[in-house]
Amino acid sequence: MRTLLVAINSKYIHSSLGIRSVSYYSKQKGFDIDFCEQTIQTPLLASLAEISSYKPDIIGLDVHIWNKNYVYSLVNLVRKVMPKCIIILGGPEVSFTADSAFCECPDADFIVQGEGEVIFASLLSDLEKGRKVISKNVAWLDDDGCIQNAGNLAVIEDLAVLPFPYDDINSFKELHKIAYYECTRGCPFSCSYCLSGISHYVRRKPLDKVLKELDNFIDAEVPLVKFVDRTYNLGEEYFLPIMQHLADKETKTLFHFEIKADLLSQNVLNFLKTVPKGRFQFEIGVQTTNQDTLKAIGRKDDWQSLVKNVIEILTFGNIHLHLDLIAGLPYEDILSFKESFNDVYALRPHMLQLGFLKVLKGSLMSKQAEEHGIIYMDDTPYEVLQTNYVSYKEMRFLKVLEDVFEHTYNTGKFDYFLEHIINEYYKADAYAFYEDLSIWWDSKGLYPEGHNIRNVTLLLKSFCEEKFPEHAKTLNEILRFDVFLKQPGWQPNNFKWHGEEIKEKVLEFWRNENIIKKYLPSYDFSTWRKVRKYLPIERFKWHPDKGFNSDFIVLADLTGSEVHYLEIEGKDFYDKQI
Questions:
Q1: Considering the domain 166-390 in this protein, what is its CATH number?
Q2: If I label 245, which of 75, 155, 288, 451 is the partner at 20 to 30 A Cα–Cα?
Q3: Phi/psi of residue 375, nearest 5 degrees
Q4: Is 116 buried (19+), middle (13-18) or exposed (0-12) by CB count in 10 A?
Q5: Which fold has domain 3-148?
Q6: 177-220 per-position pLDDT tens digit
Q7: Residue 310 CA: distances (Å) to CA of 52, 250, 259, 336, 354
Q8: Would you list the domain boundaries of the chain?
């Protein structure tokens, strides 16, 4: 029997780890397996055409929060044109609630529940031999239409049996695809909104196997490898050797980890300081700083240790930090969310993601929803609409604020402007600033429209001119400074630029090799085009440390992320890292 496994990803650049692993394990066991990947943007009829071209007897698909509706529609079409084909579903959207999955997708024949590699291969064996011995971890409909075995989740104890799930890894660099990887499964924590703690303990792949598999990504020059381990940094004797191995390699591959920052020891921090820049990035789930909320959702965080460790990592300047918050959690009202937001914002991570509670099927949160008045979408992504603590109107406003935040802070293009306006005019209350900006943004009909970075720059300028007309000159100058550093080559007419008036002084600078070498020791002239692009010079009346002071000529070395300040008369002032 010919089996086709189909991955439906949310974006082209993604790759499907789970169903790949199922596919490669079954191949390892000798089954005839084909594999194909599509996205939710692929027209349904195009996906159907590709699937039918394989002429499969059995089709397996994994169902996730992002692809459920697409997969169910696709299954319906498959059943119409291939009525005798056996259809098997798996994945988190059906594993925990097989009974409702069969109701929503009646064309499915079987549902693999839990970790699917071993169970799927066992099911294939039963089907190929025509036997009725179906694993207890597979749900199915009997002749009377009754669901059998629902709710029995499979857990693989020995991860050493799992093969490396990428035989096409050499194409990832050219296709700019993200590779996903796991070295552990399970989670010792029991966060009520999460489904990762099935086994309530962590199982690990053998260390030598992990290092060998990671070398495959490095050899293939994969741009980004994301570890999907729910909490990567559990067991220093295990995770630290992996990081050390990756740090010692000569590679441009970036490795992404989800970590619990309060668990990092000083030994680990000392190591992280030595990691090559651009090798690691960390995602840290804070979710909330409200202690009553943390207790209600089953999280135990040491906030002081988290703050200390995050601040220390940020001083290293070599690791990108991404922190998360969740709106809509129990006991978190708007005032509490504001405090959580300001607590995390004060750390100044490179990115701060404002997420919204999703009440996943099978999660403890789904059983707590009534207690906390959590009303959420019946269909994916099951996102919260309101709670006993946050009204729908307030939740809707937080969606606007999230959009504004993504367009401003998380772009990393307005660092000086945002720091100045929040500290000077909002007394360091970051939420108050984003609240004001969001109200203005919404009043102009800018939500939920998309905006490019240049448009956002001009919108910020308009906001300042309306909100702070007496300070607009200062704010525009700081915004212009950010444009100069982060949007090179763009000089909008809405700002005053000084290129022509300082042209002679700039040429004088570039003719004086002694001055150039002092600021740019490795400078080697190639073309004027590269000089203008990567080493722009501009005049400003604002200085990051001196404020609105005397004039400065600013030289930005965009290749080395450095900015040099010179007094207008040409005397040396000082150098500062961006």
A1: 3.80.30.20
A2: 155
A3: -105, 130
A4: buried
A5: Rossmann fold (3.40.50)
A6: 999 999 999 998 989 999 875 667 899 999 999 999 999 999 99
A7: 51, 26, 11, 22, 18
A8: 3-148, 166-390, 391-494, 503-577
